[in-house]
User: Fold this.
Amino acid sequence: MLKALLMKAKIHPKVVLIGAGPGDPDLITVKGMKALSKAKVILYDALINRDLLNYAPNDTLKIFVGKRKDFQMYTQDEINALLVKNAFEHGNVVRLKGGDPFIFGRGTEEIAHVESFRIETEVITGISSSMAVP
Assistant:
């Protein structure tokens, strides 16, 4: 049933994991900006600079999934489920994470979960503050 809906709607599910860099919006890669400009849905973390969301089209659905000490909007399992759900419903989903998604992030876990549903993935690395500051 889901496959028939996808074919009818011509939705190509894809998740792009982008490292947003260490906080300065000018430190995101050009490739990251281009991916944001094509996003239908963005799931973003607390550590990103919110100015980066301006690179997305106005009609892009933006979902805050950030976690801070003693606060989390969504569990990691819920974030993983949102990635899959939105990829099948909207097509191009961006997961925007602070720094580099694989340094202190859960990029590997998120990509593995999405790929287990045979959804295309792409990773656009970012600069981690642990690498940028020194």
